[in-house]
Specification:
The chain has four helices and two strands, in the order H-H-E-E-H-H. By secondary structure, the chain is mainly α. The protein has one domain. It is elongated and about 75 Å long.
């Protein structure tokens, strides 16, 4: 799911839709343990997270080229430097993406640490969630 690969070589020959589909496939692979009924519930979240992952990659590359600060000029006497609109978009999108990833990870079955004293009770309780 890594959306912060360096450079643009990995995307040169792929369309945005192909990249989104690849991200979607990666997410579904990570969610393979999810029961079918939960897969239906998180389908839209997976699709949206894949879309956002691709957008974050593109914004990340733009930020590498342009930086996070931009010059502005409002009229003759108002000018200066500010946080770039690309960085603001990146930050908002990343926050939303991270939230969706957390939702997807929380949907996965809980893993129990294996112990020598495991009598099966904890596994039973967690499997009922």
């Amino acid at each position: 799911m890594g959306c912060r690969k360096k450079g643009g070589d990995f995307m040169k020959n792929k369309t945005v839709d192909e990249r989104r589909k690849q991200k979607e496939d990666e997410l579904w692979k990570a969610l393979a343990e999810l029961p079918e009924n939960k897969k239906k519930i998180v389908k839209n979240t997976v699709e949206d997270a894949a879309f956002k992952a691709v957008q974050l990659e593109d914004l990340h590359i733009t930020l590498q080229k342009e930086g996070v600060i931009e010059e502005y000029q409002n009229g003759a006497n108002q000018h200066g430097r500010k946080v770039s609109s690309v960085f603001q978009a990146y930050s908002a999108l990343d926050k939303s993406y991270q939230s969706q990833v957390k939702i997807l990870l929380d949907a996965l079955p809980k893993e129990l640490p294996k112990s020598d004293n495991d009598d099966g009770f904890e596994s039973f309780v967690i499997s009922r969630d």
